[in-house]
Specification:
heterodimer, A: 224 residues, mainly alpha, B: mainly alpha, 7 helices
């Protein structure tokens, strides 16, 4: 199963590198949203809970873009039939898609965080650093699991682009709460770590629940 | 199949609801700080508890559907979720009225349970567009079950996360949990919960009876059509 997942993941990453569809769109979207926030909030620099909120909401909305496109290649070019016919555990598809989404999110954050720091963030991003990376990685894991599940759920729907945001975002509320609460003290003018352990714990719990759930339930989405 | 026991159940529900209303208006004392308005609590909280129970039950029925492939489990799951969404709307409306009457605002972010409930309600509202945008009936049932399970797992996570977030920023305004209710209020509250649960089960059975009857009717009509066509050909 692992080798099948690795093969599918490699295919998806190669596809992304060659077509450059999802990640540049997500990055551009994030940068635009930061600019919108500058005008919407009428602020030159933000910190603390405001910065944490702007960052996380932007990341979540950008994730929606990637989720909508996640199964696009399989759907449009019939790859799904090949995958279903192959004598391979179908969970491999979920694992591969979730990993691909994880990689896209990390790539997005590599671009979006420095831009955020440049455009909007008051305090220095490096002060927040090792803790912020921990929060981001755990949150990305949850985002990847839920995103892959929702992408599969919505893939057969006629109204795919409409369903994904309204389905994905409420499911992500606990993740948003934990991530924003964990990040808020890190982005204050004097960066501190407050309750970080608690919120990382909540994030881990969320990740475990949704990974197990998605793996358990994914097979039923691909039956025909 | 579903209509078995429906009549005694309905009668029990009517009795329970009447008893509840009688208790609420004539037996339970007025709350010390909130006065008469507090009585909406006997409607609001039981509906919330039953709605959440309904969502979880819908999730469990969805698991049964996926494991057995029997579409009747999917129908049961759908009806449970459908009724819970309606109850949920009632919860949000009564909660809003209560908030307005006791704190002067139609909506408060301070109350973690109400906020969690709003998010859960919004999530379950997606059930309809998801379900009805998938054409193939078998796939529709399967995908809806997957959603019901994911959303059912989401409910406790959501409540925990929201409560954790709130307790650090706002003090708990509402402290009327089951723990410290005086005797008469507690009795009324328990009777109210029983009544709303009975109402939910009765409506659930009723809707399932109606749906299965109409499905059987459709099937019979189709058979009749096919029969007629065969006769014409012959």
């Amino acid at each position: 199963m692992i080798s099948a997942a690795r093969a599918i993941l490699r295919k998806d990453l190669l596809l992304e590198v060659r077509t450059k569809e999802s990640v540049p769109a997500m990055a551009l979207f994030s940068i635009t949203v930061f600019v919108l926030f500058h005008f919407g909030l009428d602020r030159n620099s933000i910190d603390g809970s405001l910065a944490s909120g702007v960052l996380w909401v932007t990341l979540l909305l950008a994730a929606v873009i990637a989720v909508v496109r996640l199964f696009a290649a399989e759907r449009e070019q019939g790859g799904i039939d090949g995958l279903l016919l192959a004598p391979v555990d179908r969970t491999a598809l979920f694992v591969a898609k979730a990993c691909a989404l994880f990689v896209f999110l990390v790539a997005l954050e590599v671009v979006a965080l420095p831009v955020f720091s440049l455009l909007l963030l008051g305090p220095d991003l490096l002060d927040a650093m090792p803790e912020l990376i921990a929060v981001l990685l755990l949150a990305d894991l949850g985002l990847a699991a839920v995103g892959a599940l929702v992408a599969a759920l919505a893939s057969e729907s006629r109204a795919r682009e409409l369903i994904v945001p309204i389905l994905l975002l409420p499911l992500l509320v606990p993740l948003l709460i934990a991530a924003a609460q964990a990040t808020e003290p890190l982005l204050r003018p004097e960066a501190v770590t407050e309750d970080l352990g608690r919120w990382l714990g909540v994030l881990s719990l969320y990740d475990v629940v949704f990974l197990l759930l998605s793996v358990g339930v994914f097979d039923y989405l691909l039956e025909d | 199949m579903y209509s078995k026991g429906l009549k005694p159940l309905s009668i029990a529900t009517v009795v329970a609801l009447t008893t509840t209303l009688a208790l609420v208006f004539f037996y339970a004392p007025n709350d010390a700080d909130q006065g008469f308005v507090q009585k909406i609590f006997y409607v609001h909280v039981p509906m919330a508890i039953v709605a959440l129970g309904g969502f979880v039950a819908g999730g469990i029925m969805a698991i049964k559907h996926l494991r057995s492939g029997d579409p009747s489990w999917d129908m049961r799951s759908y009806v449970a979720i459908h009724l819970s969404i309606i109850l949920g709307l009632g919860v949000l409306v009564t909660g809003s009225i209560w908030a307005r009457a006791s704190w002067g605002h139609w909506w408060v972010w301070d109350e973690p349970v109400l906020v969690s409930f709003l998010v859960t309600f919004l999530l379950y509202c997606v059930y309809y567009p998801l379900r009805f945008s998938i054409e193939d009936p078998e796939r529709q049932a399967r995908y809806s079950s997957v959603f019901a399970i994911a959303a059912g797992a989401f409910v406790p996570l959501n409540f925990t996360a929201v409560r954790l977030a709130q307790s650090f920023t706002h003090p708990r305004v509402l402290s009327q949990t089951g723990g410290n209710l005086p005797g008469e209020m507690r009795l009324t509250f328990l009777v109210a919960i029983v009544a709303v649960t009975l109402l939910f089960v009765t409506l659930w059975k009723l809707e399932l009876t109606a749906k299965s009857a109409s499905m059987r009717l459709k099937r019979l009509r189709r058979k009749l059509e096919e029969q007629r066509e065969l006769e014409v050909v012959a």
